[in-house]
Design brief:
This protein has 7 helices and no strands. It is an all-alpha fold.
Length: about 110
């Protein structure tokens, strides 16, 4: 999907507030994902009930050590990551040099314990 076909922020808000057809929501999510705009894709994946797409983003967050992405995806999925998952994310973040994410994940793991 070309960048010009993605909605501007106001149109995006209106689409998310409307009862959007799941196929259209998935197509918009795919457009955002194609441009590397994962955070913006999450709401459309949720609206499309594309659990597999959300779980793929969850796996990507874990692999990269991305706390922000993990929190957004987990919220969309309606489940909190376990302490074990946060510790794994912290280790991945540390390996990737994402020290703030590593620190945040360690704190989140302690909260869940």
């Amino acid at each position: 999907m070309a960048k010009s076909k993605l909605p501007d922020p106001l149109a995006k808000r209106h689409l998310l507030e409307a009862d959007l057809d799941p196929a259209k929501a998935k197509a918009l999510a795919d457009g955002y994902l194609a441009l590397g705009r994962e955070i913006e894709a999450i709401d459309f994946l949720k609206q499309a009930k594309a659990i597999d797409g959300l779980e793929a983003l969850e796996a990507a967050a874990l692999e990269r050590g991305d706390v922000f992405l993990m929190r957004k995806v987990s919220q969309a999925l309606g489940r909190d990551p376990s302490s074990e998952r946060w510790r794994a994310l912290a280790a991945a973040a540390e390996r990737a040099g994402r020290l703030r994410d590593a620190e945040s994940a360690v704190r989140l793991a302690a909260v869940d314990a």
